[in-house]
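Appendix B. One record, verbatim.
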Amino acid sequence: MKSFDIQYLRGDPVTEISPAPANSCTWVETLGNIQRHFDPSAPNINFHFVVDQTGVTVYAQWVAEAEGMDKSTFAVIQLPAIMNTMRELACLYPTPDRLVFFVVDYDGKILIGGVLPDPSRDPHDTEFMDDIEIFYDDL
């Protein structure tokens, strides 16, 4: 409980957001594009866009089967989901500072949680893999 910071519902925006540049995407457009990469019949898949005093964050959760896999194999299998999400975030405005992701099993148990700073960068530049920080691992 000591790790949580209690906050209250804000009535005013945290920061002033300038008008979106040309060729940028709204969250509604981006969300639809991200969801195309995931099985719509799978449970526990969701994405949220949050702008608050800590910055601009996209929260993502998807389902994966981990039974019988070692940690490194499971992690490699999650890379396409991360890369597809990154690809769709490239035009989002305001630009996300981080992607916080959770991979859960079909019962909703968290298997792995991580954060990727600057998720709007080119996912084909695989250096992003070095920046992923896993903060929860129950594999």
